[in-house]
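Question (not urgent): is this output format expected?
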Amino acid sequence: MAHLKKKSLGRLAGLVIFFSILAACVWKPGTASQGENRTSPYPVADVFRDFYHSPPNPEFLFGLPISPLQRRPDGTWVQYFEKAVFVTDATEEVRLEPLGKRFRIPGEPYLTHAQRGPQCRSYPTGYAVCYAFLEVYLKYRGEEVFGLPISGIETDGLQIFQDFENARLLFRFEAPENIVVADLGRMALERDLAGMPLGSQVHSLREPQKLQLQVQVSSPVVAPGDTLVVTLLALDQNMKPVANIEITVELFTKDGRSLGVQQVGITDTYGMLQFGLQAPENGSSRLYLEARARYEGHLYIARRMFRVSFP
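Got this back:
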C-alpha cells in the first residue's frame, strides 16, 4: 500500500510539472527586465556588435560579456558571454560556438509520450521541440541562434531542460518566458582558462581548495619582444568568481631564476585579471609565469609555461 502511494505521488509530481510546461503556452508571468541594474566592465566588441544586437533581447539569449576581445593561436577572434561564445575569423563571419554539444550531459527522458502533437515541431536530428521550449525557440530565430535540438525534454532530477547545438534551455515556471538560457559561456571560459580538455568535469576534486587560481597565456610560443596577453581567473570552491583578490605575477626561467619582472593587479567582478607582458629580447627560451594570491589566510600559487622563439 505504501509502495502504491509513493508511486502515485511520483506520477502526480510529474503531471504537475508537465502541465506547468504546457501552461507556459497560455499563461505568462510579469516581464521584468533581465538586464535591470546589470552591467559589465567589458563592452561588446565592435566585430560582434551587430550580431549581438540582431535578435530581440540579446541579454536573455547571450548574457553580458564576461571577457574582452581575445585572439586565439589559430588567428580567430573570440569573446565570451555568460551564455554563449562568439567567434570570428579573417572573413569576419560571426558564429556561435556549439556549447550545447560541448557540455552535453544526458539526463533522463521526461514524459516522452507527451512530446507529440500540435504543440511540438520535429527537426532533422530526430528530436521535437515542444510547449514553452518551442515558443522561445521560434521567437528567437531557432536554428540560427540555438542550433538544432540534440535531445528531447529531459531531467537530471533537479531541473527540466532541453539541449540544442549551441545552448541549453532550462524550464523555469517563474521566469518571464518560462524558459532561461543556461550559463554555458561562463563554463566555457572557466574550462578554457584552465586549459581543461573537452568533456572534463569542473568539479573534479573530492576536496576542492577554497581558491582555484588559473593562468592562461595568449600563445604558448612568442617572438622576442612581442606582447604576451596574460589572463588570470580566481574561482572559489564552487567555481564562482572571486572579485577583489590581489594577484602578483612574476616571470621565471625554467630553472626557477626570477627575471625581476612583476605585475600586481586586482580581479574584477568576474574574478578576472588581464594584462600584457613583453617577452624578453634575449636569454632563456623556456620561461614560466607564477601567479600568487592570498585568500582567507592561505597562499595559492599557479604557474604557466611558455617559450620565446629566439632566432
